[in-house]
Write a structure and sequence with these properties.
Chain B: It holds the Pfam family GerE. Chain B: Keywords: DNA-binding, Phosphoprotein. Chain B: This is Response regulator transcription factor. Chain B: It comes from Arthrobacter sulfonylureivorans. The complex is a heterodimer of chains A (450) and B (216). Chain A is α+β, with helices and mostly antiparallel strands and 450 residues long. Chain A has three domains: 57 residues, no CATH class; 218 residues, no CATH class; 129 residues, Heat Shock Protein 90 (2-Layer Sandwich), CATH 3.30.565. Chain A is 64% helix and 8% strand. Chain A contains 17 helices and five strands. Chain A has a five-stranded mixed sheet, with helices on one face. In chain A, strand 4 and strand 5 form a beta hairpin. With 216 residues, chain B is of the alpha/beta class. Chain B has two domains: 126 residues, Response regulator (Rossmann fold, 3-Layer(aba) Sandwich), CATH 3.40.50; 88 residues, Orthogonal Bundle (Arc Repressor Mutant, subunit A). Chain B has ten helices and five strands. A five-stranded parallel sheet of chain B has the order 2-1-3-4-5, sandwiched between helices. In chain B, helix 3 links the parallel strand 3 and strand 4. Classes of the chains: A alpha+beta (450), B alpha/beta (216). Chains A and B meet through helix 14, strand 1 and strand 2 of A and helix 6 and helix 8 of B.
Amino acid sequence: MREPLIRSTEDRIIAGVCAGLSRHLNVSVGIVRVGMVALALAGGAGVLLYIWLWLLVPTAADEALAAERAFNPRDIAENFARGFGASGAFRDGTEQAGTPPLRPVSQPLPQPGTPAPNVEGTGTRRLLQRGGKEILIGAALVLAGGAVVAQIAGINLPWGTWLPVLAIAAGAVIAWMQLDDSRRSGLMDRAGATGAQGAVRLLAGLVLVVAGIVTMVSGSITWEAMWPTLFASLAVLAGVLLVLAPWVLKYWRDLETERSGRIRETERAEIAAHLHDSVLQTLALIQNRAGSEQDVTRLARAQERELREWLYRDKRQEEGNLVDRVKAVAAEIEDAYGHPVDVVAVGDAEMSDRHEVLVHATREAVQNAAKHAGGSISVYVECTPGRSEVFVRDRGPGFELASVPPDRMGVRESLIGRMERHGGQARIRNTGSGTEVHLSLEHPQEGTAS
Amino acid sequence: MTEPIRVVVVDDHAIFRSGLKADLDERIEVVAEAATVEQAIAAIHEQRPAVVLLDVHLPGGRGGGGAEVVAGCAALLGETKFLALSVSDSAEDVVTVIRAGARGYVTKTVSGAEISDAVQRVAGGDAAFSPRLAGFVLDAFGTAAVANVDDELDKLSARELEVMRLIARGYQYKEVAKELFISIKTVETHVSSVLRKLQLSSRHELTRWAVDRRIL
């Protein structure tokens, strides 16, 4: 199969036309380039052909961008399949309701727009890295040298004509390169990062072209006649600009609208995909299990938690810190026992080995509450610099530590013993309307992440 | 306690409104319902209820939701109390509506009895704090703060901190009172004073906390 005609962004001297052409025609690049130069010498036909191809043939990045535009966010099924490999497990499972929906949080949807800009951005940089600039300068110097040699050899070059023409050509090339670059990344993106550089390039191109034209024209008219003429042309230019400005503006706005529309579509698709993966599945499951009240409540709680996490996640809260871990523990036990566990957190702390102990003890306490007390369980985490505390409160019948037989290892060993071994404290008390476990950990040297 | 408390329920979901009406006990009489910001403001001005049960997220108006309703009824704040009711946990939603003038905040998942208690409390001029709201307060004001006269508005007193901590730990008002050996009335006074601070404080830290969460 023949390669499509695409300008190369890697192997290029001016705009990658020859390299692209060679790949398309399956001919060596050198031959194409020599042919192009030969054509250029034949009355400038090659130059015209080159410019024509430059304008009409897209680059690889252009193609990628076009493919991205063709990406249809509404086609959730396909995009979804792209984003997630297997999602079948959830449909069959009944007990896994808590786990699969968590996946989108930890593993966000791949955004369709992200890979393309990377490809685009590297084009110019790669050219510069490969010394493309040096090659260009070298070529210009060789040309100049050749011209000087020709001059010495006695061939009379009409410098007065050639220099301005060269200046105009150089200016146009610089300006066009700029357009080429910016067009590829959608005109807007570059405004922030390389805007200054782009402006300089554009200005340099403009100055070169204007200087060239002025020099050329000044050959045929006197300097006295020059200024009124210049003034008149400026006036004409301003008039044309005045007429064209609304069109340009309109085009610009259309482009912006289209862009923002596309972004919105992408966002919407992401939300739709998420809802599909989690909420719709859970709703279907709830309909299936409508008979069992406990299952329905459990599913609803798990789904609520997951959706909440997705919607209201505190952006500053670091993943994997103490609060995050305690919430995960609470969610796990809520799923396992079907009793709601509410976590309220103030501050946060980075995890350490001793915090790991605190998390384990918290799990033990919440589990005890879910097992023996039932009902809703409140967990309160408070982290201040140097101190982390966890309160686990239930509204069960309550129990006295003294009444627990010594052979029961659960509370004594995994709560009190473990906390104390790691320099913490665990206190269990009967509040009269339930039990409260208070775990505290002092960590003078470690900072908090709140 | 003979007169039932007149309540307006504002929520854009008819199912939730009817469910809530069925759940509220006999001390409370629902006199009107509203589903949008405009309807709510009109109904509240017409009925002059004692309490408005207000969803934080509402369609209509300028998109301000519950906070906009409170702002639209600012002239009535003396006689009408607002109790925010939401499924949302986000600090933005909660603190915005509290700072607009609501007297309390409860989540929609709590039982009818608890909501009725909260309505009762708000109607009596007190504040209704959920554990989560207490958590936000502690987060915003800091957990190590004792007021002196200068920054009275900007920090919580030791007692207020204790009360907030207990509420955050899941204690109800009467349990807090028992725990601290004070009367329920005193607990309510402390909570009301915390609410006032939350509404009025322009403390630098509070502002920054709010800006971090894009609230103000």
